[in-house]
C-alpha cells in the first residue's frame, strides 16, 4: 500500500551534515498496525515527518497507490498525525476541536455535526462534547486528538509517541483503545515508539531502526523467537 523507496534525509551541508535516514526501503500493508521502533536519534520522527509532509526528502519516493505523495503538499495527502502533546485548541470545546478538522476542509455544516457525533461516540467521549478540552485528563485529551485525526477520514494515521505523556495505567488503557480503533476503522496505523514492550504488544509488524537505517522488519512473534 505505502511503498517507501530509497528514502533519505540529510540535514545541513558539508562537514556539519547529518544523515538522519539512509536510503530506507520497505512496504506497509493496507490496514496494518506498523511500528517504527528504536532509540532516540535513530530517525523515527524524521521518517514520520517525511510521510506527513512536514519535511521533504533528500532522495527517494513515498508511493501510495502508484502515486509519489512526497511531491504532494501535506494537506492533500490522505494522512493525519496524532502528536505526543495532543496539540488541541485549549479554549475550544471537545466538539469544536473535532469539527475544526472538517471545517478546515470546507465541509458543509449539515455533514459536520453528525460526523463529529459519530467520531466522539467511537472514542467514547460523547458525554464530554461541550467541555473545554483543557478541562479533560491526559487520556481524554489524547482521545480527542485521535477523534480529530480520524474524522477527516485519512487512509493512514501517524502516531508519534502518542502515549508517552500518560502515566502507566492510562498508557495500558490507551494501548487497548488504540488497537480497538485500528480494528474498527480498518485504517493503516504507523506508530512511533522507543518502548520495545509497547511495540511488541501493539504491532502487526515492527521496523527496528538504528542509525538512520531499518535493521530488520518482523512480527512480534518473530522478534520473541529470535530477537
Ligand atoms: P528519533 O525520532 O528516532 O529520536 P530523529 O528522527 O528525531 O530521531 O533524528 C534523527 C537524527 O537526525 C538525529 O541525529 C537528529 O539530531 C537529526 N535531526 C533531526 N531533525 C533535524 C533537523 N531539523 N536538523 C538537524 N538535524 C536533525
Ligand atoms: P526541511 O524543511 O528541510 O524538510 P524540516 O521540515 O525537517 O526540514 O525542518 C526541521 C525543523 O525541525 C527545524 O526547524 C528544527 O527546528 C527542528 N529540529 C528537529 N530536530 C532537530 C535537531 N536535531 N537539530 C536541529 N533542528 C531540529
From TrEMBL:
Q: Where is the ABC transporter domain?
A: 2-227
Highest taxon of the source?
Bacteria
Return the broad EC class.
Answer: translocase
The UniProt keyword set, sorted, is: ATP-binding, Cell membrane, Membrane, Nucleotide-binding, Translocase, Transport
> What is the reaction catalyzed?
ATP + H2O + polyamine-[polyamine-binding protein]Side 1 = ADP + phosphate + polyamineSide 2 + [polyamine-binding protein]Side 1
Q: Which GO terms describe its molecular function?
A: ATP binding
Is this entry keyworded Aminoacyl-tRNA synthetase? no
Enzyme Commission designation: 7.6.2.11
Functional summary from the UniProt entry = Part of the ABC transporter complex PotABCD involved in spermidine/putrescine import. Responsible for energy coupling to the transport system.
- Please give the family membership noted in the entry: Belongs to the ABC transporter superfamily. Spermidine/putrescine importer (TC 3.A.1.11.1) family.
Q: How does it assemble?
A: The complex is composed of two ATP-binding proteins (PotA), two transmembrane proteins (PotB and PotC) and a solute-binding protein (PotD).
Name of the featured protein: Spermidine/putrescine import ATP-binding protein PotA
Q: Organism, per UniProt?
A: Rhizobium alvei
Q: Report where the shown chain sits in the full-length sequence: first residue, last residue, total length.
A: 1 to 227 of 354
